[in-house]
Amino acid sequence: MGEKLTKETAQIMEERFGCDNPVALATVEDGKPYVRTVNGYYQDGAFYIVTYALSNKMRHIAKNPTVAVSGDWFTAQGIGENLGHVKAQDNAEIMAKVRAVFDEWYGNGHVNEEDPNTCLLRVRLSEGVLYHHGTRYDIDFT
After folding, report:
1. CA torsion, points 21, 1, 57, 115, in degrees to nearest 10?
2. Where are the alpha helices (DSSP H) in the chain?
3. All residues at 6 or more sequence positions from 55 whose CB lies less than 8 Å from its CB, including other chains
4. Spatial distance between the Cα atoms of 78 and 26, rounded to a whole number of angstroms
5. pLDDT, tens digit, 9 for 90 and up, residues 8-52
């Protein structure tokens, strides 16, 4: 598609999305697209989203992990992966960052970490288009 993620585009992505950021997440079920706004945190070619394992989005991703995301002058395709419970040891490092980034609302009853269905969704980006100050960047995240 485009060029590999460069130092410049990586920096733009981190500046723009390396914080609590609303992004549109699109999934597909039975040939129908579904889109919803989620709080996302970007790091190293992926968005991280705290969600509910029994939600429609996670049900869709279990059947078809191909997803799309869209944010501030950015759109991309990728693969959605349920990384499991937010308190799983394998998620400890990234969840420490996610909790800090989402701190304004995370601990106010919006998220129940004791619920075994509270999970971490990773959207590993494959390709995307980023606009920055009038320049278009076609990015290959793989």
Report:
1. -60
2. 7-17, 56-63, 92-101, 103-105
3. none
4. 10
5. 999 999 999 999 999 999 999 999 999 999 999 999 999 999 999
95 near 105, Cβ under 8 Å?
no
Residues 54-68 have pLDDT tens digits of 999 999 999 999 999
Find the length of the chain.
Answer: 142
Between the two ends of the chain, the Cα-to-Cα distance in Å is 10
Task: Judge if pTM exceeds 0.85.
Answer: yes
Distances (CA, A) of 91 to 73, 83, 124: 29, 7, 15
**DSSP track, 41-58:** EEETTEEEEEEETTSHHH
